[in-house]
Design a protein that fits this description.
Shape: globular
Number of strands: 5
Strand content: 25-35%
Distance between the termini: 40 Å
Number of helices: 2
Strand order of the largest sheet: 1-2-3-4-5
Radius of gyration: 13 Å
């Protein structure tokens, strides 16, 4: 298994715990399930889903941050891994209003 995927798996647990602590159930899906080719600029597609709401992000081979998709379909909002849970919770709170 790729070290980058292992790192994301650890962060998934951290993020899920942060969501649960705030009373939210957020499903996190990471694709592809297998290691992408070395030539890929972005190795991982991450989807955060809560009910009908969905937020997508991409991650580089050795992720230090996720690039989140904005309303225009661009992945320009770069969030450090340590701030992802707070970012997703803000988005979720805004989306539920």
């Amino acid at each position: 298994m790729n070290r980058g995927r292992e790192a994301l798996r650890g962060w998934e647990e951290t993020w899920s715990a942060a969501f649960a602590a705030r009373g939210h159930r957020v499903v996190i899906e990471v694709e592809p399930a297998v290691e992408p080719p070395a030539s890929a600029l972005w190795h991982w597609w991450i989807t955060f889903r809560a009910g009908d709401a969905e937020l997508d992000a991409i991650a580089a081979p050795e992720p230090e941050a996720l690039a989140f998709e904005d309303e225009r379909g661009r992945f320009e909002e770069v969030i450090p891994l340590s701030e992802v849970a707070a970012h997703v919770l803000r988005w979720l709170t805004d989306d539920l209003r």
